[in-house]
Amino acid sequence: MIPCAEGAGSARARRVRDDVQTDLNLMFLLLGGLSLVVGALGIANITLVGVMERTGEIGLRRAIGATRGHIAMQFWPKALPWA
Description:
With 83 residues, the protein is mostly helical. Helices cover 87% and strands 0% of the residues.
């Protein structure tokens, strides 16, 4: 074999391998990002359901002087295990 042709073939194979590696990295990055978005939506949904179930309790607590921070702390223990 001619050394020149062998070097050109290995360079092409290396370039194809690098292209495939780049594509796989991008695919896994997008998959990870999508997983984070789905997880965040799940946590938001759980928190929203908890707030909607306790609307009357939240109103009563606000009426007797609870701050927004106190109300938020009421829902953190329910949302954190899902995070």
